[in-house]
Amino acid sequence: MHLLPQLRELEHRFGEALVIVGVHAGKFIAERVTENIRQAVIRLGVEHPVVNDRQYRIWRSYAVNAWPTLVLVSVEGRVVGQHVGETTADALAPVVERTIAAAEETGALDRTRLTFPLERDAEPERALRYPAKVAGDPATRRLAISDTGHSRVLLVRLDPGGRGGEVEAVVGRGERGFDDGAHDVATFDDPHGLAFGDGVLYVADTGNHALRAVERRGRWRVRTVAGTGEQAGRLGVPGQGRAVALNSPWDVLFHGGALYIAMAGPHQIWRFDFETGEVLPWAGTGVEALLDGRRGEAALAQPSGLATDGRRIFFADAEASAIRWAEIGPAGRVGTIVGTGLFDFGDRDGSGDQVRLQHPLGVAWRDGILYVADTYNGKVKVLDPETRTAVTWIGTDAGEVGGVAGARGTGSRLGAGGSARILWEPGGIATLEGWVYVADTNHHRVVVARPGADTVEELEIRGV
């Protein structure tokens, strides 16, 4: 994801002389399903061809051993350069320029533009497009939805029944950008996590590597509270508010007058202190791993969802397929509820270390229980943090992959007629007034269910 903007810049600079082909060798089982990859291509705005290397054949033929790896191939088909890890367009440009110049000297370069239909052009218009996260505000009975594919945030005033609501505000004018101002002027780039606090809605503006605040001052307005708009380096440097560079903030949680940030890029949780304006790492060394211990010594793996019981911050550690916690106190520790390592994943209910999840992105807390958006399994799991017991509540039958049509699952009946429907890469989850709301990302909708019931309904959103 971090490389895509750099690749777009190279394509812009070198035009027809450079052809980019994405080779997708999926780590997770769900990442090897072609339709899931297609959805990611559309969601991320990829405009170059992508091959599904599900059996790692291309990976092995180029002796690749890490994600991401870039390989530069000459017109004659020879490998002339290889880079492992993230980089920038400026760093890559000189070798691309030399390769193009060499091809032009021999007359081998063909600048005929390649044309092909984009996957997104076949997609219909939708009210929601890849909603990533949801958040509820008990004080106002509002539900916030990050309508990520439309680069905006919706504020929905819920009906008394909780199963529908009216759009109160559309925040963001619906195009990528980094503009503050009135709700119909401001812009976001890939907004994800949401959190209400002291009358303000905070937004993890992931593509802008920034935190934004949405508040009502006569009209709804957006202002940037942290982040420069540029991605921080591998390990970010603490700083003040808008002067500090962030790295893919994926979720936010307001608690105790501070904002906790799931910083997926450097594999850390950061904390924004509103009194001092300081933004700094709070948990995790920046090493990608599953390692418990003191907050400053523990290792995380792409934290992507946050919740709290008041004593601990619970987080979905996506790359480790784990649900973990970090104590809030000054001498806090990090521990793991379920999950055992970076390459230990699957779909298995049970207790303790026998539990397997697959790349969970969301977690919510209610009455002593955690609700987990088990994203790549297309499920919602119910997790008891004390007994470490996980049970499927909503989703597909065991062994099915989210997105496979026709699967039936526990509590998965939607709407009238009881037709079997499934979740497809649910990314966010929130609780409000006894209901659980789920951002069913690849189905372009939000669904709602009540714990203890076996009916799941699509949230009726009016006025969008």
Compact description:
This protein is mainly β and 464 residues long. The protein has four helices and 35 strands.
DSSP E strands, number: 35
CATH top level of the largest domain is Mainly Beta
Give start-end ranges of low-pLDDT stretches. 397-421
Strand order of the largest sheet: 30-29-34-33-32-31
Query: Please, what is the average pLDDT?
Result: 92
Domain unit count? 2
For the biggest sheet, the summary is: 6 strands, mixed
Strand residue percentage: 35-45%
How many helices? The count is 4
CATH architecture label of the largest domain: 6 Propeller
The CATH topology name of the largest domain reads Neuraminidase
Rounded to the nearest angstrom, the distance between the terminal CA atoms is: 29 Å
Structural class: mainly beta
Radius of gyration: 22 Å
- The helical percent reads under 10%
Q: Say which CATH homologous superfamily of the largest domain is assigned.
A: TolB, C-terminal domain
Primary descriptors:
single chain; 464 residues; mainly beta; Glutaredoxin; Neuraminidase; 2 domains; 6-stranded mixed β-sheet; 5-stranded mixed β-sheet; 4 helices; 35 strands; 10% helix
